[in-house]
């Protein structure tokens, strides 16, 4: 018996969808949303109907009938801590990501879109390797302030898929290697895989800045800015997530545009772009200490890893730790579909989401 699976993965300015029949990719499409349209919404949750309509419109253009589907699988959103693997989407999960998300994030839209399609045709829907997968060591949870515990939020889906893929390429088991994986995209996060788990990480708000996120900023200055009277809470959130990083410095979130500026002789653009690479390297160095420097590989993945300029700067600073592997782009759609396929085949159990 064959299975047709639709995978849904919203990003900050796009919604990526893919159709698989068993392990075969039928199509994959990135549905771009103009930045002006994204900016017209007050928050991410308000984008749900727009993104649903864009997805359904594309499927209609492809003359694909959703009744042919066996399951829909979605990127896991900002839930309270969960384990890696599959969870069946239920009403409680939808209520959480729509009304009570841990933080605002485009991934919160994935489960509602998938659930709506699946419910209409009476098939199961899942999330897989949620952003909020939590397998941290106890010692890694301590932040320095009891009021601000560290949470586990990183690009789990892509980084875990890349770590597993790398291990297979070396004829090793995923759980017998120590691998640091840096996901370089609209948001940047870095995590370390040891013993088959993500045991620590540098999240996108405690590490490198990225095309649209400010990353770790000086706490005292941040507090002063929050209480300056210049900005409300919502605006401050947008300064850190959405209007930070490359956008704040250079008025673009496109790394290719930044490289064009650099190639045209823009020294400020070079300084900012190299600073981003510098901070990524610092994050990798931080995580090497988690396993006492016994790192088998460092993987650079995500869309910006296509940049030879940026990755060369990073490699110069971290190659003394371990070999650096460039695995550019994302394997997220395949990781989602294959995860759901294992559940449908009975090779892996889907967990029930509870709070």
UniProtKB/TrEMBL annotation:
<keyword id="KW-0963">Cytoplasm</keyword>
<dbReference type="GO" id="GO:0006083">
    <property type="term" value="P:acetate metabolic process"/>
</dbReference>
<keyword id="KW-0547">Nucleotide-binding</keyword>
<dbReference type="Pfam" id="PF00871">
    <property type="entry name" value="Acetate_kinase"/>
</dbReference>
<dbReference type="GO" id="GO:0008776">
    <property type="term" value="F:acetate kinase activity"/>
</dbReference>
<dbReference type="GO" id="GO:0005737">
    <property type="term" value="C:cytoplasm"/>
</dbReference>
<keyword id="KW-0067">ATP-binding</keyword>
<dbReference type="GO" id="GO:0005524">
    <property type="term" value="F:ATP binding"/>
</dbReference>
<dbReference type="GO" id="GO:0047761">
    <property type="term" value="F:butyrate kinase activity"/>
</dbReference>
<keyword id="KW-0418">Kinase</keyword>
<dbReference type="InterPro" id="IPR011245">
    <property type="entry name" value="Butyrate_kin"/>
</dbReference>
<dbReference type="InterPro" id="IPR000890">
    <property type="entry name" value="Aliphatic_acid_kin_short-chain"/>
</dbReference>
<protein>
    <recommendedName>
        <fullName>Probable butyrate kinase</fullName>
        <ecNumber>2.7.2.7</ecNumber>
    </recommendedName>
</protein>
<dbReference type="InterPro" id="IPR023865">
    <property type="entry name" value="Aliphatic_acid_kinase_CS"/>
</dbReference>
<dbReference type="InterPro" id="IPR043129">
    <property type="entry name" value="ATPase_NBD"/>
</dbReference>
<comment type="similarity">
    <text>Belongs to the acetokinase family.</text>
</comment>
<keyword id="KW-0808">Transferase</keyword>
């Amino acid at each position: 018996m064959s299975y047709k699976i639709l995978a849904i993965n919203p990003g900050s300015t796009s919604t990526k969808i893919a159709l698989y029949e068993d392990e075969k990719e039928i199509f994959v499409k990135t549905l771009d949303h103009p930045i002006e349209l994204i900016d017209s919404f007050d928050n991410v949750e308000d984008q749900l109907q727009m993104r649903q309509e864009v997805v359904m419109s594309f499927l209609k253009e492809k003359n694909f009938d959703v009744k042919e589907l066996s399951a829909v699988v979605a990127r896991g959103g900002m839930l309270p801590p969960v384990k890696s693997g599959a969870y069946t989407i239920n009403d409680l999960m939808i209520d959480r990501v729509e009304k009570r998300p841990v933080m605002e994030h485009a991934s919160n839209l994935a489960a509602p879109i998938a659930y709506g399609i699946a419910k209409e045709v009476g098939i199961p829907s899942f999330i897989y390797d949620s952003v909020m997968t939590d397998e941290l060591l106890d010692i890694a949870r301590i932040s320095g302030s009891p009021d601000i515990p560290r949470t586990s939020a990183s690009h789990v889906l892509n980084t875990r898929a890349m770590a597993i893929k790398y291990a297979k390429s070396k004829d090793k088991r995923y759980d017998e290697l120590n691998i640091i994986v840096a996901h370089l995209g609209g948001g940047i996060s870095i995590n370390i895989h040891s013993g088959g788990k993500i045991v620590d990480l540098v999240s996108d708000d405690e590490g490198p800045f990225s095309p649209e996120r400010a990353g770790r900023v000086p706490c005292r200055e941040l507090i002063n800015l929050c209480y300056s009277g210049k900005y409300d809470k919502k605006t401050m959130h947008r300064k850190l997530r959405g209007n930070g990083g490359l956008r704040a410095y250079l008025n673009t979130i496109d790394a290719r545009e930044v490289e064009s500026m650099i190639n045209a002789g823009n020294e400020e653009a070079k300084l900012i772009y190299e600073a981003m690479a510098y901070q990524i390297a610092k994050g990798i160095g931080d995580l090497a200490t988690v396993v006492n420097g016994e790192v088998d590989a460092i993987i650079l993945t995500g869309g910006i890893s296509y940049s030879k300029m940026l990755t060369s700067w990073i490699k110069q600073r971290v190659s003394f730790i371990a070999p650096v592997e460039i695995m550019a782009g994302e394997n997220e759609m395949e990781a989602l579909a294959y995860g759901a396929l294992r559940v449908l085949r009975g090779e892996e159990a889907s967990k029930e989401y509870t709070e």
